[in-house]
Write a structure and sequence with these properties.
By secondary structure, the chain is mainly α. Helix content is 38%, strand content 8%. α2 packs across α3 and α3 crosses α4. The longest helix is centred in the middle third of the chain and has 17 residues. The chain starts with 18 loop residues before the first helix and ends in a 6-residue tail after the last strand.
């Protein structure tokens, strides 16, 4: 156990913070929900999480976009989950090989906008 003097004042310790390490840069420049909506509106086909993330990055940054990182996929997955709970998009489970372990909800899912029902 470490001995601390009774007269020691913790305010004497000077700390230096690097602000750039504390603040994370934004992953996307534009609103992510808007980007995901644009990607899903492009076609009515089923799209995987990786494809949606890649297309959203391309819309956001232009032609020279970086490859999607895990952080990008997690951000897009959060938006997809919110849209799915609101009933705006629908999910289809991908048919995997019978010996493949069925893990990762977002990896084995495909997404698209719900078709509008006209009465």
């Amino acid at each position: 156990m470490i001995y601390i003097e009774p007269n020691f004042d913790l305010r004497q310790i000077k700390t230096q913070f690097n602000i750039s390490r504390l603040i994370k840069p934004r992953l996307f420049k534009q609103n992510l929900q808007l980007l995901v909506a644009r990607v899903l509106k492009q076609s009515d086909s089923w799209k995987t999480l990786y494809f949606i993330t890649e297309e959203a990055l391309e819309l956001d940054t232009g032609k020279d976009y970086p490859l999607p990182q895990r952080e990008h996929e997690l951000a897009v997955a959060r938006v997809l989950k919110e849209l799915y709970k609101k009933g705006i998009i629908e999910r289809k489970e991908v048919e995997l090989h019978k010996r493949t372990l069925k893990r990762r909800f977002f990896r084995r899912s495909e997404w698209r906008l719900k078709p509008l029902v006209q009465e």
